């Protein structure tokens, strides 16, 4: 019975945790993964992120997508998958509004089977949590109202930190698909480089009665047993047995197992050591009597193992990237070309690459046997006149096309000349007018600055202040003059005055 493999997790925006997630997907042949808090969502056809980048769906074929803030949905293999994430820092009212929107998404994909996978940061005994908070009560009531059932089994923590653990990653399913879910479990034996653990489960392609739940029985083409070639059938069965024997005998390299391009045996060993260090730490925490010093030492060992694994993944990716760039000069049409064109096999090399030459020859001979006495039909010879006629037609078409291009260029040149002829005189006239207006404006501005006032007949006394003398004159004349109105005051020339005139002017100022 065919099964679809699902993976659920939260990687806390960590780049290395996302790298390790992709390796786990390759190793376990995961069909669909829901990732909360991804490091980033690449622009690829098998990635689908929400509106704010808080959750993403990774799958082979994702159709009918929809997204919002904190949720993303798509259909894969006839199952609607909804990925969710809700921050613990938001209020309960915001969470209720989020669930209302999420309920509309679930109803949109009805009557398809629906899976709702995500981190809601809600605790409830309905999915194994030892305590139930207000957000968990709201989520539990929402699931019942929407018609979803909880897939969580047991009380294994999905989020483990130094202070303790919690169960906040929840899997919901509609009744039509819940009965097909197999082996739901928390992958506690795997290191994720995150404080959240992976959740894995399988969904069978058929129900218990043996019928596909969504696709009707297809009464399409069938094998015509009366026309079967028994000799070819026996040869094909023999070839299949050879393939299985070759795989059992180790003819296919074990290193060809599914993996990402940067995965190495050293990284696999470091991950095993990291898991062992975490087990020692978690086992010690289960004791009733614990020594804080020893507990801290075990945690430091676990933390150092995670850091070593984190650095090893980064170094391996850098080396693989440099190797890929270096291969551009050696083989530009090899792996770099296949990678850019999307033809690079991400999991394993072709099966025939690991076969021995003798076995490969036997397989090809069995699949494509030589038939004696068969003469292929002679192909009709091409008539020379037809070829010449075709060449002539192509040449005439090319000449006609070039003629049209030349005519188009002539018309464009004529239009440009007409535009230039009509615009140039008008443009010159406008430039002359602007120059004249600028000149007039400049002259008027200079005239407006000529506000000089000359006062004559004032006797000059040694050491007097011209500005103060001007202020006295304004007061006597009844003129209001502000200090800011006076820019500069100076004596132009000394005029000799008679004694009577000097006395009269002095009396005026007094």
TrEMBL record:
One of its GO terms (molecular function) is catalytic activity. It comes from the Eukaryota. Gene3D superfamilies: Endonuclease/exonuclease/phosphatase. SUPFAM superfamilies: DNase I-like (SSF56219). Keywords: Coiled coil. CDD domains: R1-I-EN (cd09077). Pfam families: Exo_endo_phos_2. Residues 81-199 form the Endonuclease/exonuclease/phosphatase domain. The keyword Endoplasmic reticulum does not apply. Residues 398-447 form a coiled coil. InterPro entries: Endo/exonu/phosph_ase_sf, Endo/exonuclease/phosphatase. This is Uncharacterized protein LOC113508210. It comes from Trichoplusia ni. The lineage of its organism: Eukaryota, Metazoa, Ecdysozoa, Arthropoda, Hexapoda. The gene is LOC113508210.
């Amino acid at each position: 019975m065919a099964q679809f493999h699902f993976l659920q997790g939260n990687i806390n925006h960590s780049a290395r945790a996302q790298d390790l997630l992709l390796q786990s997907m390759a190793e376990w042949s995961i069909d669909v993964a829901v990732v909360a808090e991804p490091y980033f969502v690449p622009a690829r056809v098998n990635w689908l992120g929400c509106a704010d980048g808080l959750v993403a769906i990774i799958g082979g074929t994702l159709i009918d997508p929809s997204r919002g803030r904190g949720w993303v949905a798509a259909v894969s293999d006839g199952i609607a998958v909804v990925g969710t994430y809700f921050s613990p820092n938001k209020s309960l009212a915001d969470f209720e509004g989020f669930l209302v929107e999420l309920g509309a998404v679930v109803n949109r994909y009805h009557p398809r089977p629906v899976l709702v996978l995500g981190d809601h940061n809600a605790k409830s005994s309905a999915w194994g949590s030892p305590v139930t908070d207000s957000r968990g009560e709201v989520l539990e009531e929402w699931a019942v109202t929407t018609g979803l059932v909880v897939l969580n089994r047991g009380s294994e923590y999905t989020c483990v930190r130094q202070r303790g653990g919690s169960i906040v990653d929840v899997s919901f399913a509609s009744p039509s698909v819940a009965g097909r879910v197999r082996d739901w479990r928390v992958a506690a034996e795997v290191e994720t480089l995150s404080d959240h653990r992976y959740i894995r489960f399988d969904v069978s392609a058929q129900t218990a009665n043996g019928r596909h739940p969504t696709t009707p029985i297809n009464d399409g083409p069938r094998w015509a047993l009366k026309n079967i070639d028994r000799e070819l059938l026996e040869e094909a069965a023999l070839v299949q047995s050879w393939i299985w024997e070759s795989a059992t005998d180790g003819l296919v390299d074990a290193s060809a197992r599914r993996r990402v391009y940067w995965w190495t045996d050293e990284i696999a060993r470091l991950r095993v050591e990291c898991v062992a260090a975490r087990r020692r730490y978690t086992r010690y925490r289960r004791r009733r009597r614990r020594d804080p010093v020893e507990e801290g030492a075990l945690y430091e060992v676990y933390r150092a193992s995670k850091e070593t694994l984190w650095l090893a993944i980064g170094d391996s990716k850098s080396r693989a990237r440099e190797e890929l760039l270096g291969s551009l000069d050696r083989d530009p049409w090899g792996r770099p070309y296949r990678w850019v064109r999307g033809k690079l096999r991400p999991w394993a090399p072709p099966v025939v690459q690991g076969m021995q030459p003798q076995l490969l020859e036997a397989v090809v001979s069995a699949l494509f046997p030589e038939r004696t006495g068969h003469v292929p039909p002679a192909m009709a010879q091409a008539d020379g006149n037809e070829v010449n006629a075709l060449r002539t037609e192509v040449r005439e078409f090319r000449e006609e096309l070039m003629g049209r291009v030349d005519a188009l260029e002539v018309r464009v040149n004529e239009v440009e000349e007409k535009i230039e002829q009509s615009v140039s005189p008008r443009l010159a006239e406008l430039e002359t007018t602007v120059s004249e207006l600028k000149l007039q404006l400049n002259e008027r501005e200079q005239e407006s600055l000529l506000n000089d006032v000359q006062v004559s007949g004032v006797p000059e006394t040694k050491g007097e202040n011209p500005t103060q003398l001007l202020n006295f004159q304004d007061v006597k004349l009844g003129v209001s003059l502000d200090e800011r109105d006076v820019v500069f005051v100076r004596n132009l020339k000394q005029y000799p005055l008679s004694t009577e005139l000097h006395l009269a002017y002095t009396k005026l100022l007094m």
